[in-house]
């Protein structure tokens, strides 16, 4: 349990730093969202927090789609929401709830 909490904290710190340092780059937002989604998956969020994980995955797909259409602002917003939902999924998964 302590390991999952540590992973959550490190993921949040890394994503927050990436978002602050690289404010205008769409690729970094997408990379951060993909990394958060991967961490959520590895923490067992698909079983323990399926709603939150599904929302994160959906927003990530929207971010990729908007990026391919050159809608950078919409892509960045969707990537931020994906990161937010991934963190919620990681937190819920680390609590050990199973749905």
Question: Would you kindly provide a written description of the structure presented here, covering whatever features stand out?
Answer:
With 99 residues, the chain is mostly helical. It has one domain (2-94). Helices cover 84% and strands 0% of the residues. The protein is built from 5 helices and no strands. α2 (26-42) packs antiparallel against α4 (50-68), α2 packs parallel to α5 and α4 (50-68) packs antiparallel against α5 (72-94). It is globular and about 40 Å long. The two termini are 18 Å apart.
What does the secondary structure layout of this molecule look like, with pairings?
Elements: H1 2-21, H2 26-42, H3 45-48, H4 50-68, H5 72-94
Helix pairs in contact: 1-2, 1-5, 2-4, 2-5, 4-5
Please estimate the helix content. over 70%
Q: What structural class do helix, strand and pairing data support? A: mainly alpha
Mean pLDDT: 85
Order of H and E elements = HHHHH
Strand residues, percent: under 5%
Ends apart, CA distance between termini: 18 Å
Number of domains: 1
Number of strands: 0
- The rough form would be described as globular
**Main beta sheet, described?**
none
What are the defining features of this structure?
about 0% strand; mainly alpha; about 100 residues
Short description:
This protein has helices at residues 2-21, 26-42, 45-48, 50-68, 72-94.
């Amino acid at each position: 349990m302590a390991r999952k909490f540590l992973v959550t904290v490190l993921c949040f710190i890394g994503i927050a730093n990436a978002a602050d340092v690289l404010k205008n780059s769409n690729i970094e937002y997408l990379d951060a969202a993909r990394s958060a989604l991967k961490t959520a998956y590895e923490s067992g969020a698909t079983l323990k927090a399926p709603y939150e994980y599904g929302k994160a995955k959906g927003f990530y797909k929207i971010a990729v789609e908007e990026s391919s259409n050159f809608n950078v602002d919409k892509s960045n917003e969707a990537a931020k929401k994906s990161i937010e939902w991934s963190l919620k999924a990681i937190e819920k998964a680390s609590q050990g709830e199973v749905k």
